[in-house]
Design brief:
With 99 residues, the chain is an all-beta fold. It is built from no helices and seven strands. A hairpin with a 2-residue loop joins strand 6 and strand 7.
Length: 99
């Protein structure tokens, strides 16, 4: 799984019928300090995440292992909303904390 920040949403009115009902989010991966890195990823949302939240997402065959994405042609899925993380005893991110 990969840490990322939800930076936007994606709407598609014309799509493969098996994707109907899925919400799509635009993600930017982050490092352990919470700094945005590399490019963007579009992922199906299995946990009702929102813009601005930190999440964990999975790609590849793991993306089809959630109830919402089972047997659907998804290559990335948001699987968890992050409440906090710490590294070496140092809190790097806490949901709702003003940085």
């Amino acid at each position: 799984m990969v840490l990322a920040k939800v930076v936007g949403t994606l709407v598609s009115t014309q799509k493969e019928p098996s994707l109907d009902g899925l919400k799509f989010l635009i993600l930017q991966p982050v490092d352990l300090d919470g700094h945005i890195g590399g490019g963007t990823v579009v992922a199906a949302d299995a946990v009702n995440a929102g813009v601005g939240e930190m999440v964990l997402y999975a790609t590849g065959s793991s993306a089809r292992q959630t109830i919402k994405t089972d047997k659907r042609p998804c290559d990335a899925v948001v699987m968890a909303i992050v409440d906090n993380w710490e590294v070496g005893g140092d809190v790097k991110y806490k949901k709702g904390r003003d940085d």
